[in-house]
Design a protein that fits this description.
Oligomer: single chain
CATH topology of the largest domain: Rossmann fold
Strand content: 15-25%
Strand order of the largest sheet: 10-9-8-11-13-12
Largest sheet: 6 strands, mixed
Bound molecules: guanosine-5'-triphosphate, magnesium ion, zinc ion
Structural class: alpha/beta
Number of helices: 10
Shape: flat
Length: about 350
């Protein structure tokens, strides 16, 4: 396979400064089990990680810029943005869905399964990531009049653009494509079956990504795309197609994403009598007053509270894990010191 022009992949002076001398820059285009497709100036290679990085459980994601040496990934350059979720499972661990992304498209299909609450959750994660969210509503052709649903989404979007498209008729597809500028990277995130890969294929002008065969509506939910894949769009720009996410568990302990997604609630809260108002029972609580008057929809208020609780719980668990790791390190050091004195 021929090589790539790094500039069109988004390489810039900032990244170049971070690269250790002697290493060759490359961008991770796909992640497979234990191996990565890396695009460099010379070619596209399948590369693994050296034992040291494996041991450190280093997190390599599609979109990462890496330093290559002897056919292995030697280093991961600091990210400009990273979309991180809590990996499903018993323990909390971060999983980077995509790195160095400029725009994150939150994709849902227009229909009965459309869930504004799920979109809110995505927005919190993306605002936290450093990328800019935009909302994409697909399969506009299935509805006579999608505008009521679109309005419901716009109500949770607060200044985030909402695009309505149909990959079947082509409606809105070119306008959406135009959002991805030269040398910038977009990622498509959303449930399985909403039409992410169909959209990518339309932009590429050929069926590069496998899509679901049937157009049965009740077929949504089973995965067709199996791994995250970065693609170069004709005319410039990059897009990362991802397998459908069943759920998006929040990660990161900051509240920046929450504040950005719920700036309407934050604005109200600024008018509460007490600066540390919990918005539960305090007198002159502007948030509760807005819920009572109907200015702030009750569901949105509950959704905000729920996400807030989730972030707090995560922060606490995070702290506990850190403390445990510290204690373990301490004990180990004490034992080593003991062993040394015994040897003397
Ligand atoms: N009617 C209609 N069907 C569409 C549209 N876009 C996609 N589909 C159909 O929806 C189904 C799922 O599309 P995919 O592109 O495979 O969905 P996906 O989001 O990539 O799914 P995963 O890879 O599993 O995450 C396919 O049968 C598509 O033909 C659209 O705009 N209108
Ligand atoms: Mg797909
Ligand atoms: Zn209050």
């Amino acid at each position: 396979m021929p090589g790539f022009d790094l500039g069109t992949l988004g390489w810039n002076a900032e990244f170049a400064e971070q690269l250790e001398p002697g290493l060759v820059p490359g961008r991770v285009a796909a992640a497979h089990r234990g191996a990565f497709d890396v695009w460099t100036e010379a070619d596209a290679v399948r590369a693994g990680l050296p034992g040291r990085l494996l041991h450190d459980r280093i997190d390599v994601a599609v979109g990462d810029w890496v330093g290559m040496g002897d056919g292995l990934i030697r280093s991961v350059l600091p990210r400009r943005s990273a979309i991180v979720r809590n990996a499903a499972g018993l323990t909390t661990s971060a999983q980077t869905l995509a790195a160095n992304v400029d725009i994150a498209f939150v994709v849902s299909s227009l229909g009965p399964d459309l869930e504004p609450r799920r979109i809110e959750r995505y927005l919190v994660t993306i605002w936290e990531s450093g990328a800019t969210p935009e909302i994409v509503l697909t399969k506009a052709d299935r509805l006579e009049d999608p505008w009521e649903l679109v309005a419901e989404v716009e109500a949770v979007a607060l200044g985030v653009p909402v695009h309505t498209v149909s990959a079947l008729t082509g409606q809105g597809c070119d306008a959406l494509r135009a959002r991805i500028a030269d040398s910038t990277t977009a990622v498509l995130l959303g449930s399985s079956g909403v039409g992410k890969s169909t959209l990518v294929n339309r932009w590429l002008g050929s069926d590069v990504m496998a899509t679901k065969e049937t157009r049965e509506d009740d077929d949504e939910g089973r995965h067709t795309t199996s791994h995250r894949q970065m693609l170069v769009l004709p005319g410039g720009g990059l897009v990362i197609d991802t397998p459908g996410l069943r759920e998006l568990q929040l990660w990161d302990v900051g509240e920046a994403g929450l504040d950005a997604t719920f700036s309407d609630v934050e604005e109200l809260a600024a008018n509460c009598r007490f600066a540390d108002c919990s918005h539960e029972h305090e007198p002159d609580c502007a948030v509760l007053a807005a819920v009572q008057s109907g200015e702030l929809p009750e569901e949105r208020f509950h959704s905000w509270r729920k996400l807030q609780r989730e972030l707090r719980a995560m922060a606490v668990r995070h702290d506990a894990l850190l403390r445990k790791a510290e204690v373990r390190k301490w004990k180990l050091r004490a034992r080593e010191a003991q062993a040394r004195t015994r040897l003397r």
